Amino acid sequence: MEKILFDYIEKYIALSEEEKQAIIDLSVFKTFEQDAILLREGQVSNEGFFVVKGCIRCYYMIDGEEKTTAFYTEGEIFAPLCSITGQPSEYFVACVEETILAVSTPEIEQISFEKFPRFESLCRMISEEKVARNQATFDEFKTSSPEQRYLTLLETRYDLVQRVPQYQLASFLGITPQSLSRMRGRLQKRSEDGPEANKLYAAL
Amino acid sequence: MEKILFDYIEKYIALSEEEKQAIIDLSVFKTFEQDAILLREGQVSNEGFFVVKGCIRCYYMIDGEEKTTAFYTEGEIFAPLCSITGQPSEYFVACVEETILAVSTPEIEQISFEKFPRFESLCRMISEEKVARNQATFDEFKTSSPEQRYLTLLETRYDLVQRVPQYQLASFLGITPQSLSRMRGRLQKRSEDGPEANKLYAAL
Predict the structure, then answer these.
(1) Where on the phi/psi map is residue B84: left (φ > 0), alpha (ψ -120 to 50), or beta?
(2) CA of B166 vs chain A CAs: smallest distance (Å)
(3) Residue A88: which residues within 8 A CB-CB, separation 6 or more?
(4) How many CB atoms are located within 10 Å of the residue A1 CB?
(5) Residues facing A31 on adjacent strands
(6) Cα–Cα distances in angstroms (integers) from residue B197 to residues A161, B5, B34, B154, in the given order
């Protein structure tokens, strides 16, 4: 269970045995059932999550409809905005499937930073990289057509296409479920029609 | 010049006189002309920026057209992805107007973290907050229509609408300049037509 967390951290810094033990002692691993809700709109939580196994998603309720905006899977970290601002959350966080999370709080962070100041450097490096990478993802979303976004998703996060319901995937791509369905149909047809069919289309 | 930087930092931690002096000693303030290019596609830079005065933007060259994806104005911080990954930049960074920046490098950061470990905590807090706030901005972009995005921009970053050319604003909103122009026309007409005209429409 800890291995995936150690592997993630060791992309940034090599851990000593003592530090590994401290992480094991501090880490609160929790298992959640499919569809379990981790955070509701209007709630405040101070918890941050590292996904050990499974998938969580963020969604908003807009005019009675769920709008999914983000997914986090194995080896990804996520701290809801309310855990930083203390303001009520504008979105829900729920488990797409049975999920194991390492759950952190400011208290756990504080204890670990005091004992191992390197852990604070680690969190700084992880966050700085996330800011820059997330901006690049946002840029790509802005500069791509829905079809390009879908093809990029097939190429870079194919696991999501397989494990996530279509209606959640549609709003994640910024389109309606009907548009996604039509687009899949078009791409399927293109794949059957011509010799230019490639493994992406074949994967549809 | 330092005041805007101190004000920004003191939203997170109160600074001692010694720390303020260290920031003055370390800060490299540079002035750039309008349209000066800070980073080109394909280049690698290790510089990060804090905007003291002015406005910088990120843009991609796609099929010979500029696609602007982000603006940073007074009191905002920005580190290009290449400064973290060491990989060539996929985008350009340029000054929209004459701009004064505090320019940082990993070396400057390291010196300051060693002398004032609290500065590393500060950078961690700033980055963690930015990750969560930027995600909320991305969520809003995904779940809004282009018209809603434009009205939100008028409400929350009206300065941008005033200081930035329309074609840059259009791709920032994820639409074509023609769509933005038509949308402004529609909103203008709606404002003239009905008693429901409000200050937002009046501002168009």
Answers:
(1) alpha
(2) 16
(3) A41, A42, A43, A44, A82
(4) 11
(5) A100
(6) 44, 39, 36, 14
Identify the H or E element spanning A61.
strand A55-62
Q: Is the ipTM of this complex over 0.95?
A: no
Chain A residues lying within 8 Å of B85, measured CB to CB: 129, 132
Are A169 and A180 spatial neighbours (Cβ–Cβ below 8 Å)? yes
Question: What is the maximum alpha-carbon separation in chain B?
Answer: 62
Q: Cβ contacts (< 8 Å) between A67 and chain B: which residues?
A: 142-143
SS3 state at B151: helix
User: pLDDT per residue over A123-170, tens digit each?
Assistant: 999 999 999 999 999 999 999 999 999 999 999 999 999 999 999 999
| Best of B50, B76, B77, B124 to mutate (most A CBs within 10 Å, chain A) | B124
Residue burial B2-41, b: 16+ Cβ < 10 Å; e: rest:
eebbeebbeeeeebeeebeebbeebbeeeebeeeeebbee
Q: How far is B53 from chain A (nearest CA, A)?
A: 22
Taking CB atoms and an 8 Å limit, are A143 and B79 in contact across chains?
no
Determine the pLDDT at residue A200.
Answer: 55
A26-61, pLDDT tens digit by residue?
878 999 999 999 999 999 999 999 999 999 999 999
Residue of B80, B121, B138 lying closest to A138 (CB–CB): B138
Pick the residue of A41, A65, A69 with the most B CBs within 10 A to test the interface with B by mutation: A69
Strand ranges for chain B from DSSP E: 28-32, 37-39, 48-53, 55-62, 65-73, 77-78, 92-95, 99-104
- The single residue listed with the structure tokens 């000066």 is B36
B26 pLDDT band, cuts 50/70/90, is confident
Asked if B136's CB is within 8 angstroms of A141's CB, the reply is: no
Residue A161 to residue A176: CA distance in whole angstroms: 16
Edge-to-edge order in the sheet of strand B77-78: B28-32, B99-104, B48-53, B77-78
Give A203's DSSP letter.
T
What span, in angstroms and rounded, lies between the C-alpha atoms of A77 and B166?
37
Tens-place pLDDT, residues B96-107: 999 999 999 999
Question: How far is B198 from B106, CA to CA, in rounded Å?
Answer: 48
The CA distance from B44 to B40, in Å, is 8
Mutation for testing the A interface, residue in B58, B69, B76, B89 having most A CBs under 10 Å? B69
